[in-house]
Amino acid sequence: MTTTAVTNMTHEEWLAEAERRFGKDPADWKFVCPVCENVAAARDFFPFFDEKGQAAQAATNECIGRHVKPRRGAFDQSKGEPDKPCNYAGYGLIRLSPIRVIFEGEEVHSFAFADEGSNG
Q1: Chain center to CA of 74
Q2: Residues 100, 108: contact at Cβ < 8 Å?
């Protein structure tokens, strides 16, 4: 798990940064889990949700491990490192998401964007 400073962005800034990195299709936007550092695109979540909007929302604050394999605690360090992908969600008690987006007057937590060209 890495420690990252929190970045505050307006919703417009967040959208512009996503489009700059990955293009206009939100399905192509990639995020990094702050616990296990797994990279996943919004489209990776499509099989687990009825609506693409729900899948895209999940990509911003859930590790794909919550959906793709038996759940094991994100903080179970019995192997000496986090299981990858883990089952961390950024909306729980422990909020490690490094981006705070101001959206309609509310603060929304988001995982960091992956680097352009990263696999996931």
Answers
A1: 14
A2: yes
